[in-house]
Amino acid sequence: MTDKIYLDEAINELHSILDMVRWSVSRFNDAQLFYGHGTDNSWDEAVSLVMHGLHLPHDLLAQTGDGLFAAKLTCSEKEKVADLVLKRVQTRMPLPYITHEAWFCDLPFYVDERVLVPRSPFAELIKNRFAHYVTDEPAHILDMCTGGGCIAIALAHAFEHAQVDAVDISHDALEVADYNIQEYQLGHRVFPIHSDLFSSLEGQQYDLIVSNPPYVDEQDMDDLPDEFQHEPELALASGEDGLDLVQQMLEQAPLYLKENGWLLVEVGNSQVHMATRFPSLNVEWVELKHGGHGIFAVSKASLVSYFNGKEK
Predict the structure, then answer these.
(1) Verdict on whether the full-model pTM lies above 0.85
(2) How far is CA 137 from its chain centroid?
């Protein structure tokens, strides 16, 4: 069936919000889309898309219950939703790039194809204010490889008196980060900085360094679903085992950490390569209660001991 017929059917034969959600789910299932940029199934993806297309708050269903699904739609509303559904199917573009909105730590952010769609399990750690690692209120935090600034801004919300440096090598990404920083009126505490890792941070010392760097290895890059091809490769790939950038970060971090400082890094599936790349490095793998994996924590003392030992 052609897209034109699908579109005409949706506009002429469907009536309610529930009709549009059900129709969207069917189109997504038929196209065998991949979900992993804010939702993990076709129903939630369809609800998010329809609510956006109708300019309804994302949490309205929680307030109204399922009764909202019975609301009737105008032809122009059905046409707008149907156009969004077909764009999602035809382009395989992640939904947040279509809506220009993604949620992280219960906060909305602007996103486009200059940055990754936020989906890091760091959200759980931020909400817990890095319990077990941060005992005193941090004054100076670094978000390395900040992308659109979502982690940096969430850190600023969690630690209301901290300065957060939001560092990235991509000027394009920093433009998005700066937009989000200004939207949250945090320009006095969150600072976007262009830097190749620590190269522009000479003399800075941090209580906490957090990083969700590029960490996808060559094999996983080759196997990524089409949706990921819309994301900047610079923010995904990092060598054969995915740890090239992490290696540099671990080597340089001791110079920028305060004495009791911690470095926490997300490496995802490249966790399996860590022991080979860094034998005997004393890292603690974070146990995540709400899904996700591959975040390790390492103290300044452990980094100094490990790299000083390698030099001997």
Answers:
(1) yes
(2) 25
CA distance 68 to 225: 34
Q: With contact defined as beta carbons under 8 Å apart, do 242 and 264 qualify? A: no
- How far from 153 is each of 71, 182, 214, 276, 290, CA to CA, in Å? 36, 10, 19, 34, 21
Residue 306: CA atoms inside 13 Å, Cβ hemisphere, count?
Answer: 19
Chain CA centroid to CA 101, Å: 12
DSSP single-letter state for residue 250: H
Burial class (CB in 10 A: 0-12, 13-18, 19+), 68: middle
Instruction: Please tell me the distance from the alpha carbon of residue 52 to that of residue 296, in angstroms, as a whole number.
Output: 36
From first to last of its 312 residues, the chain has per-residue pLDDT tens of 566 667 888 888 899 999 999 999 999 999 999 998 889 999 999 999 999 999 999 888 888 888 899 999 999 999 999 999 999 999 999 999 999 999 999 999 999 999 989 989 999 999 999 998 998 999 999 999 999 999 999 999 999 999 999 999 999 999 999 999 999 999 999 999 999 999 999 999 999 999 998 766 566 666 777 888 877 765 555 566 778 889 999 999 999 999 999 999 999 888 888 888 899 999 999 999 888 889 999 999 999 999 987 654
* The two three-digit tokens of residue 203, written as one number: 């003399």
Nearest Cα to 208, choosing from 147, 277, 132?
A: 132
